[in-house]
Amino acid sequence: MKAKRFLIGLLMALAAVLLASCSGQEAAELLVVETGIDPDAWALVPAGEFLMGQHEHVTAVDYDYEIMVTNVTNAQFADFLNAALSDGTIRISEDGTDLVGYYPGDEFHGYRHEERIDAGDWPLFPLDEDGTRLSFDGETFTVKEGYHNHPAVYVTWFGARAYCEYYGWRLPSEVEWEKAARGTDGRPFPWGYELARNNANYYSSRDLFEKIFGKYGDTTPVGFYNGKTYEGYETLDSPSPYGVYDMAGNVWEWTGDVKDKQHYRYMRGGSRAEYEHYLRVWASNNAAPQYASPNVGFRCARDAAPGD
Amino acid sequence: MQAIQARFRYLFQSTKGLVLVAIALIALVTAIWGTLSGPMVEWGVRDVTVRLLGFDLQPAEREGRIVILYHVIAMAVVAIMVYLITDVVPMKKHQQTTINATVTLGYLVSMFCGLGFAYFGHEWLLHGLYLFGLSLVFFAGLLLAAALFPWRKEYYVQDAERAHLRGLDLERTAFFTMAVAALGSAVLGAITGSYWGQGHETFLAEDIIRSPDKTTLQYAIIGHLHIMLALIAIALALVVGVWFRFRGILHKISMPLMILGTIVMTIGTWSVVPMHGGSAHTIIYVGSVFVLTAALFLVIFGFRKIIRDRLAERGIERASFGQGLRALLHDPLRFGALWQMVFMNFTVSFVGIFVAVKLTEIFRVWPLRDERLILTGHWHILSGIIATIILLYYADMIDLRGRVRQWFGWAVILGSDLAFGAVTVFEMKRLFVSEANQQPVVDWTMLLADAGIVVVLLALAGLMIWRLVDLFDGDGLWRREYREAGLDAQRVEVGEVLTSAQEMSK
């Protein structure tokens, strides 16, 4: 009898803990933060060798290039969608669920598990996802309040590529991305050798937005970890050796490589939803190019202007 | 001094003592190293452990550390399996002693030196000793295979209820096949390990699963890790079969299937190397079907035996369904060992089949991150299920009785099944919830998984603390087990030998 009472008590206590933990995301107001980091800025990455990957293979990049200092923001992406939609570069899919754009297709090798990516219209951005940060009234995209300087998310690889190409740029290759993130000294994180909770936005990093929205948190505005203190929350200045921000955590970033024998596209940098080991500069993730997620964004690269 | 010697002899010379030491060390390693990941990191426990113990956790060396940690725990589990096999399969006493001593030294050296190397700076002497420890475990495996050799006439059986082929004991042959397969599969890993630093780089298999250009050495590791875990599971199923005195028609069907399945599965995983995946999977599936069918027959036999024995004990001749069910569930240790094999299908086999069916729809679109979750989840669960069956077996072995038997058994079964079920839902969450709305599912499943694990760990901790306290009791359970193991008699024999040797030397 005593055992039964103990068991019932134990189950009730467990149920209470469960209910308490699953009260859902509170409808807290989004904190609007101006970081002072310019999302239109570019960083120069000079030609030269660097140590790539976990096992530090000496890799040469024999040209200068530039990479965006921050991820593409919601405001920048909304501007692109409005411009590209109005000039016909992109369209709404027939079933009205996605924005689509033309992609010339990949060579198909028929390799095991490889999927065909044929020429044609492919999804760039979903219109029916409730987690996107843009509103669409049928004609114009606007950024949901408070998210103008957060990284653009739910952008497919096709969408990220379309954005960069629209302005004459490109997605960075994995090599370009990693060199921009770690420089030449083989460091595991963009800012150095150790990771503190206020270096980057990752799972359970207890950042300001996590405190507001719970464990899963939210994206942080681009350039958030720049040494400033926001509402009492102190960040560490965490740029890469070339002054590039958010190369670890916040959102995964699409890279531009199209690899042989596979349709997957690769992402770098980890995200707010990952544990810290995914934030190491060599860690990668990949998905089909039509995949869109609240934890995936991108930035662009371009050839360095002569004289830079 | 004599008291210490007696305890030492119990812990390192009796099967029950050896199993206890290995379980205690695994529990200790799990308790400490478990604080380095998952929620323990979120709660800041990891930082405390690192500071207290002075761990050196270089970010670039994480994968290497994990590989060594896996091996350290695996060697202790292998040692437990060896102890159980040398205990239940007939062999000469000196063979049992030599095998147990070798595997014990091997796993202890690899455990202490491996962890020392991986987590406390890189003292290469420790790495060398770690490899030496692994080699000793391999050597113990060679001795075990030799001891299990089934074609010796003295081990032939004529029992009509046992599977045999003109006297050749097929159960013993199944043990032998498993041991030989494990030795060959260990070589797969060892060869790759020998190339470490000479073109082979440390990796975790789940990280390169989508890479179309894996090296031959990487395929060897992928084959190695899969088959080693499967063979440990097979070894345990065979031991459980002996525990249940598996006999009759099901035994006669099951043992050939187990032997055939072990051989086919092993060939399949080895052929991953030359075939670079490809049709090796088909061979593995065929082998798995044989082994799973053999295990199913064991479960059917075992459940029926539990019910039959209990009903006979209570004098019930014609039982209702309810009486049958109560009889089945009356002993959680015996029921649990078989039930966990059934439950394994829900959390491992069926998930694998489902994923294979939905391959194009799911894995070809989902991020690697989600695929990786399923991969690591399913093998952690399989390892966990193996661990729980060992615990249930051990609890029966030391003859837990009454309420303690009930509480311990049900805590292990319910706690682990809750945890494994929750992790399975967590792995597969993308099927029914979008990323934007996943957090409540993550919170629920993680909480349930943690709660389940805590229940199992508390049961384990209770058992270990009790056994530790018991060691301080001059006439505790350990003393009974000491006597049962015949260590008193052995001591007299050794004493007599030494005395006569001294006399002869005079």
3D structure, described in words:
The complex is a heterodimer of chains A (308) and B (506). By secondary structure, chain A is of the alpha+beta class. Chain A has one domain: paralog of FGE (formylglycine-generating enzyme), CATH 3.90.1580.10. Helices cover 19% and strands 19% of the residues of chain A. Chain A is globular. Chain A starts with a helix and ends in a 5-residue tail after the last strand. The relative contact order of chain A is 0.19. Chain B is globular. Chain B folds into 3 domains: 148 residues; 169 residues, Up-down Bundle (Four Helix Bundle (Hemerythrin (Met), subunit A)); 157 residues. In chain B, α9 runs antiparallel to α10 and α14 packs antiparallel against α15. At the A-B interface, α1 and β14 of A face α17 of B.
Strand tally of chain A is 16
Give the overall average pLDDT of chain A: 91
Label the structural class of chain A: alpha+beta
Written as H for each helix and E for each strand, in order along the chain, the element string of chain A is HEEEEHEEEEEHHHEEEEEEE
The strands making up the biggest β-sheet of chain A line up spatially as 14-13-12-15
Summed up, the helix count of chain A is: 5
Number of domains of chain A: 1
Radius of gyration of chain B: 24 Å
The average pLDDT value of chain B, as a whole number, equals 93
Which CATH class of chain A? Answer: Alpha Beta
| Biggest β-sheet: strands ordered side by side in the sheet of chain B | 1-2
Biggest contact: A-B, 52 and 37 residues
End-to-end Cα distance of chain A, whole Å, is 81 Å
What is the 3D shape of chain A?
globular
- Going by CATH, the architecture of chain A would be Alpha-Beta Complex
CATH H-level homologous superfamily name of chain A: paralog of FGE (formylglycine-generating enzyme)
CATH topology of the largest domain in chain B: Four Helix Bundle (Hemerythrin (Met), subunit A)
**What summary fits the major beta sheet of chain B?**
2 strands, antiparallel
* Estimated helix fraction of chain B: over 70%
